[in-house]
Every structure is written in C-alpha cells, then in structure tokens.
Specification:
Elements lengths: L1 E2 L8 H14 L7 H19 L5 H15 L7 H17 L5 H12 L5 E4 L3 H10 L9 E3 H4 L6 H11 L7 E4 L2 H10 L3 E5 L12 E2 L5 H5 L1
Parallel strand pairs: 1-2, 1-4, 2-3, 4-5, 5-6
Helix pairs in contact: 1-4, 2-3, 3-4
C-alpha cells in the first residue's frame, strides 16, 4: 500500500494555516479567513507551476510571498528579501508540523496485514524527508519517492511508473491512498494502480465508490 504524504499522513493544511497565522501577526496582523484562503490559493497556483516544471522551487516561493504582499498593499522586496520572508514563514510552519491522528492506526493496520508500504509525494526530497522525521514516521513507511527524486510529478504516469519500478511490483497490485482526487486517484488509476480517495472534508465526487472519510476506513480495503 502506497500513501501520499501531505494532507494524507501529514497535516500540511493545518500546519500551514497555523504557521501562516503566527507569521502574519509578526508584521501585519491577525490572519483573517479571507487572507488564509488567499494564502492557500497562492500555494496551489505557484506550486503547480513548479510541479509542471515552469519555475524553480525558490521562484514559486518568492511568487507566493510577493502575491501576498500585493494583497496587503505592501511593496515587495528584492529576491533576497522575499527569501528572508519565506524563511520566517517556514520557521512558523515547521514549528506546527504534526501527523494526523489516524496515520498511526493506518500504518498499524497495514503492518498487521503483512503489506509493504511506500510514499509517493510531489514535494521536494529534503523537505518531505524532514517532515517524516519530525512527525516520527521515518522508517515506518517506505521507500519514499518524491517528484524531485523521480524527475516527474503526479499525475504524470511516469511518476507512478517510477514508483512501481522502485517497489518492483506490477501497478495492478498496488493500492494508492491520497487526498487529492485528480492527482492521487485519477492519476493513479490512469497509470494502472488501484486507488482510494481520502476525502476528509467530504468535497470529493459524490459518485466515487472507493472513498474513505479517514484512514480508519482503510480496514475494508485491506481486507
């Protein structure tokens, strides 16, 4: 069984929202719901550009900071200044890293069933391994394949092919679990894997049969 990492095992959105609020308060004020939503919209927009190979990781981070400053009617600094602001945000973000409560249950369930595990994630290599270390999952699940290490990002079928090659398994024998319907479910199935949608917020397609509201729901799929 292979897992996505962000918002599947690791609570990225919760950590990011808390970190954003802490960071924003240091130079602007409280993080309103609108500003927090805008921060996540900037994340999705510019991270997708990195995922598609259009910008570097550093540049997508600068664009996220610059976009926020524009919303705040603040003049953006030069690139080193943007990098410094990103560093301040990242410190606040990292201080709140935590895994979901149901991650432990899921990994215990998979281990009890004697199944191999892995992670396929679109994040950069060093960052994703750091997350696993901080939340106590290093060595608990692996191998860990990232978009950076594979040179391809989900939903590119070549990312999934790289995963299958690393595991030495036929795609049809792998069950992939992730929160992003297009990247983790549609993409996985297009590459020949089976997939379960982890729909924590109930916003996924209503007609999806292989959907779980939490990782506790994996029991039926393991059986």
């Amino acid at each position: 069984m292979v897992f996505d990492l962000d918002d599947t095992l690791f609570d990225h959105s919760g950590s990011a929202a808390r970190g954003f609020g802490t960071w924003l308060a240091t130079f602007h004020g409280p993080a309103t719901p609108d500003l927090t939503a805008a921060w996540f919209e900037l994340q999705d927009l510019h991270f997708a550009a990195w995922r598609d190979g259009l910008v570097s990781m550093a540049e997508q981070r600068r664009r996220r900071i610059g976009g926020l400053l524009e919303l705040l009617d603040r003049p953006p600094p030069d690139p080193p200044g943007l990098d410094a602001l990103w560093g301040d945000y990242f410190t606040a973000y990292r201080s709140g890293w935590q895994r979901f409560d149901d991650a432990e249950v899921a990994l215990d369930l998979v281990a009890a069933a004697g199944l191999r595990t892995g992670i396929l994630t679109n994040g950069p290599d060093e960052l994703q391994h750091d997350k696993l270390a901080v939340i106590g999952l290093t060595g608990r699940v692996g191998p860990v394949l990232t978009a950076e290490s594979l040179g391809r990002a989900k939903p590119d079928s070549r990312a999934y092919a790289g995963l299958c090659a690393a595991l030495g398994l036929d795609p049809a024998t792998i069950l992939y679990v992730g929160d992003d319907y297009e990247l983790d479910v549609v993409g996985a199935r297009a590459a020949g894997l089976r997939a379960v949608h982890l729909d924590r917020h109930g916003t996924g397609p209503a007609g999806e049969r292989d959907r779980i509201a939490s990782l506790h729901g994996l029991a039926a799929h393991v059986a």
